[in-house]
TrEMBL record:
Forms a complex with DabB. The keyword Zinc applies. This is Probable inorganic carbon transporter subunit DabA. Zn(2+) binds at residues 345, 347, 509, 524. The gene is dabA. It is a peripheral membrane protein. Its cofactor is Zn(2+). Part of an energy-coupled inorganic carbon pump. GO terms for cellular component: plasma membrane.
Length: 805
C-alpha cells in the first residue's frame, strides 16, 4: 500500500473550507514565556453567552467553566446568603427555590460528551497495557510542533512565511517505524504512507469519510483542536502577530488541524482494514454521535443551569460588599499643597501600594493609568538587534525607540557571548560536551545561589535615567510636534494637565524572581510582559525635555519649570519602590520608605509570614525574590475582581483589599467622552483578559492552566512549557500561582466594572462597539454606572439599566 486512495467522485476541492475557517477561528492566542501576558482563553467565543460557551466546550471536550459543587457548598456557609441566591435566580429568570439549588449541589451525574475517533478506539480496544491512542496522538503531534516551532523561532525572526508544519509532520510520521511497535499495531505505517502531500486535500478526503453530517463539521473540527489546545493557542498567537503586522493572509491553523484530523482518518481506516470486528461498532457509535450532538450540548446546558445561579450568587455577594464601600462618602478634603504626584499602573498590586503611600501625607496624590504609560513603542536596547514590544498585546507598536549608549559595544559583546552559550547548550551533540566541561562550575554556582544568593538592589540604587532616546515611525524620526501631540494625549488620558506637583513620579512595576519560567507573567502585562521601567524612563525623559515642554504649552498644557518627572520601579515581590539616587528630596524618600514598610506589613499575612519587625520582614521578602526554589514568590494578580474607573478622590478612603484595578478618570474633564471610550475599548478589555485567565486557570487547570510548576520543562527556550516531558503545550497559570496548598488564593468571579460617568456616555460607547456589547450582553463581565456624589449604582445589560440596591 503506497498510493493514496482514489479521489471520491462526489468530492469537490474546498468542500469543507468554510467549516475549517470557522473552527480555526475558535482558538484564542497564547503569548510566549518572554512576552507572557494574560489572555482570556475564550476570547474568540465572546459572541456566544458564557453559559452557551460552557455547554458547547463541555460537550466537545469535557472542559469546565464553573467550579465544582463542593466549592459552592463551602461558599454557602460563608459569603453566599439566601438573598444572593434568590436575587440570582430572579435575574436569570429561574423558577427555583433555595431547596432546589441545594439539591443541585448534591447531584453527582455527568452528561455524556462527544468523543473523537481516537477516544472511541481507546474504548473499543483493550488499552490497559499500552499507551492510549488519545495520549499517543497528542504526544506525537506535540513533539513535532516543538521541533517545527523551535527551529522556526531560532532561524527566522519576524518571519512572514508560513512554517511547513504539515509536511514536516508527514515526513516524521511516515518514517517512524517504532510507532507500530509502541502501539502494538501492524499495518499502521502503510496507511500513514498513503496520506496526501497537501493538507487541504487531506482535510477534504478525511472529512468525506468521517463527516456523517455536514451540519456539525465545524464543531467536530473544533473538538479536534481542543485536543491540542495548547499548540493551537500558540499557532493562534503566530497568526495574531502576523495580522498586527498587516499580513492578513498568513494562515497556519489549518495545517495543525490537518495533522490532528489525519490521525482520526488513519485510525478510521486502520480499524476498517485491520480490526474488522470493531468497525461496525465504531461506525454505529460514530454515526449516532453525529446525530445527537445537539442533545449532548443541551445536556451540558441543563446540567450547568443551576450552577450558573450559584456562580452569579457568589458574584452578587462580592458586588454587594463592594457597592457598600463605594457608597461611603469620602471625608472632606484638606486643601494641602501637593508635593508629590505618583502615577502607578492600574494593576491590582498597585492599589495597596498607592494606599500606603497616600497614608504618609495629604500632600501626596496618586493616579492610576495603564502601565505602558500610553507609549505605543517597541524598544531596541543597546547591544541588541531586536525591538521588544513594550505595550499591550492587543496593539501593534507604532513607534520604534532606540538609544545610542556609550557602552553599546560592550553590551553587544556581552549579549553575543550569552547567545553563543545558549546556542551551544541547544545543540544535540554539544549539549553533552558543555555539561562535561562546565558541570562542576555550574554545581558550584548552584551551591552559591542556594546558600549565598545575590542581593536585591535597595531603593535609591536605580541607574540614573538615560536621555537622548530616538523615536522613529517607519524609519523616520518623530518630529518635536508629533512627539508633543503624543505626550499631550497621554497627559490628558492620565488626567494630568494642570496643578503639577514639584515631583511627578512615574512608577512602572516589575517582579524579581528566579528559576521561574512564568516570570514575565508577573511583570507588567500592559508592557508585553516586560518591566514598566523602560516606558516610565522614556516618558519621564520626554516630559523633562525643554523643547517638548514648549510644544506642550502651545497645546494647552503648561508644565512649570520646577516640575521634575522621575521614573521609578515598584518591585511587586519585595514591595520596594526604586528610584535614582539624589533625584528626590529627603522628605519624599522618607515617604516612599515608610510607604513600602506599610505595604509589606499589610501583605505579609497573605504570604503566610508571621508578624516581625520591618527589617526582618524586608529580608524575608528579599529571600523569596532570590530563592531559586521558591514556588510562590508572590501572588501576582490573584483574587482580582473589579475595575474601577473614577477619580481617586472617590476611592482614596476605601480599603479595596488589592482586588481592584484602579484607573483615574474625571468625566468633567472629558466633554466628548473620548478618554472614556479609550478606557472602555483598551484597559477594560485588558483587565477582562487578566480576569478570565485567572478564572479559567482555577475552574479547569487541566485544560486552561499549566499544572504543577515543579514538573515544568521549557519548550524551545520561550515557547511555553510541558508538564513533564510531553503532552500538550500548557497554557495559563500554574497551580502554585493560584493555590497555597490548602485553599484557593483566587476566587473565580467575572470582572465587575464600575465607571463614574453619566450613564448616557457609557451607553453610547457600549452601543458603538460590538466587542464591548458582546462582553456585557453575553455575560463575560458586568458593567455598572456609578455616581459617587449620590451613591447611585446601576447595571447595564441588554440595552437597559438596572438599579442596584
Amino acid at each position: 500500500m503506497n498510493t493514496i486512495v482514489d479521489t471520491p467522485e462526489s468530492l469537490k476541492a474546498g468542500t469543507y473550507q468554510q467549516a475549517v475557517t470557522d473552527a480555526c477561528g475558535q482558538i484564542a492566542p497564547n503569548w510566549p514565556l518572554d512576552r507572557l501576558i494574560a489572555v482570556n482563553p475564550w476570547w474568540t467565543l465572546r459572541n456566544r453567552t458564557m453559559p452557551e460557551t460552557a455547554a458547547l466546550l463541555g460537550a466537545l471536550s469535557g472542559t469546565r467553566m464553573l467550579m465544582p459543587a463542593d466549592y459552592f457548598g463551602e461558599r454557602r456557609q460563608k459569603e453566599i446568603q439566601s438573598r444572593h441566591l434568590q436575587q440570582a435566580a430572579r435575574l436569570l429568570s429561574l423558577d427555583v427555590n433555595e431547596s432546589d439549588l441545594l439539591d443541585h449541589l448534591r447531584q453527582k451525574t455527568s452528561p455524556r460528551r462527544w468523543m473523537n475517533v481516537t477516544s472511541w478506539m481507546d474504548r473499543l480496544q483493550e488499552i490497559a497495557h499500552r499507551m492510549s491512542w488519545q495520549d499517543e496522538t497528542v504526544h506525537q503531534i506535540s513533539q513535532t510542533c516543538a521541533m517545527v516551532f523551535q527551529t522556526a523561532e531560532r532561524n527566522v525572526q519576524n518571519q512572514t512565511s508560513t512554517p511547513d508544519l504539515y509536511h514536516t509532520w508527514l515526513e516524521t510520521i511516515q518514517h517512524d517505524s517504532g510507532l507500530e511497535i509502541l502501539m502494538g499495531e501492524q499495518g499502521l505505517l502503510d496507511i500513514l504512507k498513503t496520506l496526501p502531500r497537501d493538507h487541504n486535500t487531506l482535510i477534504d478526503f478525511a472529512l468525506h469519510d468521517l463527516a456523517a453530517s455536514s451540519r456539525h463539521v465545524p464543531e467536530y473540527l473544533h473538538a479536534l483542536l481542543l485536543d491540542i489546545n495548547g499548540w493551537a493557542s500558540w499557532v493562534a498567537y503566530q497568526e495574531w502577530q502576523q495580522q498586527l503586522q498587516g499580513n492578513a493572509h498568513y494562515s497556519l491553523m489549518p495545517q495543525l488541524l490537518a495533522v490532528r484530523l489525519a490521525w482520526e482518518w488513519v485510525l478510521w481506516r486502520h480499524c476498517a482494514l485491520n480490526h474488522r470486528e470493531l468497525q461496525p461498532r465504531l461506525r454505529d457509535y460514530w454515526n449516532e454521535q453525529w446525530q445527537t450532538l445537539p442533545t449532548l450540548i443541551a445536556g451540558y446546558a441543563e446540567q450547568q443551569r443551576l450552577r450558573w445561579c450559584w456562580q452569579l450568587a457568589n458574584e452578587l455577594a462580592y458586588g454587594e460588599s463592594l457597592c457598600t464601600k463605594l457608597r461611603k462618602s469620602p471625608p472632606v478634603p484638606r486643601h494641602t499643597p501637593v508635593q508629590l504626584q505618583a502615577v502607578f499602573c492600574i494593576d491590582v498590586r498597585s492599589e495597596p501600594m498607592r494606599a500606603a503611600l497616600e497614608a504618609q501625607s495629604d500632600a501626596i496624590q496618586t493616579k492610576g493609568f495603564a502601565g505602558f504609560f500610553g507609549l505605543p513603542i517597541a524598544v531596541n536596547e543597546p547591544g541588541s538587534d531586536c525591538y521588544e514590544p513594550n505595550l499591550p498585546g492587543l496593539l501593534a507598536p507604532q513607534i520604534q525607540v532606540s538609544h545610542s549608549a556609550l557602552n553599546a559595544a560592550n553590551l553587544a559583546r556581552q549579549r553575543n557571548r550569552q547567545a553563543r552559550l545558549s546556542t551551544m547548550s541547544d545543540g544535540p551533540a554539544s549539549t553533552f560536551s558543555l555539561v562535561e566541561s562546565l558541570g562542576l562550575g555550574y554545581a558550584l554556582k548552584l551551591a552559591r545561589d542556594t546558600f549565598f544568593p545575590p542581593r536585591i538592589d535597595r531603593p535609591g540604587r536605580l541607574q540614573p535615567p538615560r536621555t537622548g532616546w530616538l523615536l522613529e515611525r517607519a524609519g523616520t524620526p518623530l518630529s518635536a510636534e508629533d512627539t508633543a501631540e503624543m505626550l499631550s494625549r497621554i497627559l490628558r488620558a492620565i488626567g494630568l494637565t494642570s496643578h503639577f506637583a514639584p515631583t511627578v513620579l512615574l512608577v512602572g512595576h516589575g517582579s524579581t524572581t528566579r528559576n521561574n519560567a512564568h516570570a514575565a507573567g508577573l511583570n507588567c502585562g500592559a508592557c508585553g510582559g516586560q518591566s514598566g521601567l523602560t516606558n516610565a524612563q522614556i516618558l519621564a525623559d520626554l516630559l523633562n525635555t525643554p523643547i517638548l515642554r514648549e510644544q506642550l504649552a502651545e497645546l494647552g498644557i503648561a508644565i512649570p519649570e520646577n516640575t521634575q518627572f522621575v521614573a521609578a520601579l515598584h518591585n511587586t515581590v519585595t514591595d520596594d519602590i526604586d528610584y535614582p539616587k539624589n533625584l528626590l528630596p529627603t522628605s519624599l524618600t522618607t515617604w516612599l520608605t515608610e510607604a513600602c514598610k506599610l505595604a509589606r506589613r499589610r501583605r505579609a499575612p497573605a504570604l503566610g509570614l508571621k508578624p516581625m519587625d520591618d527589617a526582618r520582614l524586608h529580608r524575608a521578602l528579599e529571600r523569596r525574590a532570590r530563592d531559586w526554589s521558591e514556588l510562590r514568590p508572590e501572588w501576582g494578580l490573584a483574587n482580582n475582581a473589579a475595575f474601577i474607573v473614577a477619580p481617586r478622590s472617590a476611592t482614596r478612603h476605601l480599603d479595596l483589599q488589592g482586588r481592584s484595578f484602579l484607573h483615574d478618570y474625571d468625566w468633567r474633564e472629558d466633554p466628548n467622552s473620548a478618554v472614556l471610550e479609550q478606557i472602555m475599548t483598551a484597559p477594560m478589555v485588558v483587565t477582562q483578559w487578566i480576569n478570565m485567565q485567572y478564572y479559567a486557570s482555577v475552574v479547569d487547570n487541566l485544560h486552561y492552566g499549566s499544572g504543577n510548576k515543579m514538573l515544568h520543562n521549557v519548550v524551545g527556550g520561550h515557547i511555553g512549557v510541558f508538564e513533564g516531558n510531553g503532552g500538550d503545550l500548557r497554557i495559563g497559570l500554574p497551580m502554585q500561582s493560584l493555590h497555597d496548598g490548602q485553599s484557593w488564593r483566587h476566587e473565580p468571579l467575572r470582572l465587575q466594572v464600575y465607571i463614574a460617568a453619566p450613564e448616557s456616555a457609557i451607553f453610547a460607547i457600549y452601543q458603538r462597539h460590538e466587542t464591548i456589547k458582546n462582553l456585557v450582553d453575553n455575560q463575560w463581565l458586568m458593567l455598572f454606572g456609578w455616581q459617587p456624589e449620590s451613591g447611585q449604582i446601576s447595571q447595564l445589560f441588554l440595552d437597559h439599566w438596572r438599579n442596584v440596591e
